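Field notebook, page 488. I keep forgetting to write these up properly, so this time I am using the form the group agreed on. The chain and the ligand, NDP, are recorded exactly as supplied. Prediction of the bound pose follows.
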Amino acid sequence: MTLFQPKASHFVDGAYIEDTAGTAFDCVYPATGEVIAKFHSATPSIIDAALNSAQRAQKQWAALMPVERGRVLRRAADFIRDRNRELSELETMDTGKALQETLVADATSGADALEYFGGIVSGMTGETVPLGEDFAYTIREPLGVCVGIGAWNYPTQIACWKAAPALACGNAMVFKPSETTPLCALKIAEIFIEAGAPAGLFNVVQGLGDVGAALSTDPRVDKVSLTGSVPTGRKVYAAAAEGLRHVTMELGGKSPLLVFEDADIEDAISGAMLGNFYSTGQVCSNGTRVFVHNSIKEQFLSRLKTRTEAIRVGDPLNEDTHLGPLVSKAQLEKVTRYIEIAKSEGATLVTGGDAPRVNGHEAGFFIAPTVFADVTDDMTIAREEIFGPVMAVLGFDTEVEALTRANATEFGLSAGVFTKDISRAHRVAKAFEAGTCWINTYNLAPVEVPFGGSKQSGVGRENSKAALDYYSQIKSVYVGMGRVDSPY
Ligand code: NDP
């Protein structure tokens, strides 16, 4: 059933384009294991065409007034909203995530980004610096051609979160989706053209890591923005550094969530469940180390077990389903391996841990939402990013102890705290070594708020006004008003 077959693998210079010389790969629907589309990885000639067209389009695009660029982005946002159902179904086919989620979280957040950056870019002005008689002024200029490289967990959102600030600032983009989820970004490319963007402004080239690597090292590229794992981030950062290219790195995490004894326990459980099971656990910012004060741990675990067992795992296209499958067979094997390691290292399985049978979807990559208790800091599941619906619950006694343990990781993407003590909430948020923190909620990432990681979890920020700094550069112009004072 290649029902979702696009016209061709790549979208370059405003049109679909194919080169069958590229390595063939399949797009698999995670709920059934069926091949739903076939692709070819980009060859050097496709990469070349994409970069050349991006260079051409960028010059034309940067010459527009910001308000004109913004209008195109906002029109694209409107088209995305109009087609939310169609795009959400495609997101579900690409990733396996439940339609109940994709209808509200993916295309819509992509549209938010385009609307936001399309709106604020005309307010992005330089400054005037008085210098006595002389003065200087600054101009914010685009970087040029940006490369976006995406992970597979949010293919629509990642494409839009990268394209929106990049294009708003006057750059062009060549985007490489993960080869696991090649479908969604192509639709976004179509929509940009429909909204009036010049051909070549947003190109999509498919492929594996080698295509991403070829893009990251090409002299025509001025910036690389990656969403991916820490090991890939290190490689891409190093490759970009060779050419002194700008980078944004949105990488992985092993984020802590602290639940104090005075927390609203039902809200804290909701936060922990959203921060571990949403998108079948495949969210970079997930709070996968849930530290619960020992005085409320048993009560927390008992309610968590009941509520977790009420989660409906099943056909992701059924809107009653809470949890779809994992994205791929490889991811299912990886998550299953971590569950086995947790058991062998002595963690207590509270619930889940197995692969539920879903009628009509026997070959899907399903896994039950899983909770482990009695997890200790040295266990593998408390140290490594699993990227599946596997929650590790750890006990603690004091705030200082919890914070020390929460921060004892190379990652620094996110962190959360549930408490009713207002001073403690802010004290803990300040002490977290993480780029994105939540108090009495978890995993909300609206476009107005900067998002990104510290430590090994990333470089730079997406979303908010902060993202403009990562897609533009400042030119200073000194204006001499008098005679040149020269000793020669
Ligand atoms: P990977 O790091 O495996 O891949 C990310 C992207 O990089 C893919 O498109 C991949 O291609 C490409 N790639 C791989 N090697 C290279 C290379 N040498 N040069 C250039 N590009 C390369 O991540 P996953 O796709 O497995 O995604 C999961 C990871 O993403 C998790 O660690 C997660 O935490 C992180 N993530 C971070 C987010 C954030 O905002 N901080 C948000 C979402 C996810 P391909 O896979 O097609 O071969």
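OBSERVATIONS:
- The mean pLDDT is 97.
- The chain is about 40% helix and 20% strand.
FOLLOW-UP: compare against the apo run.
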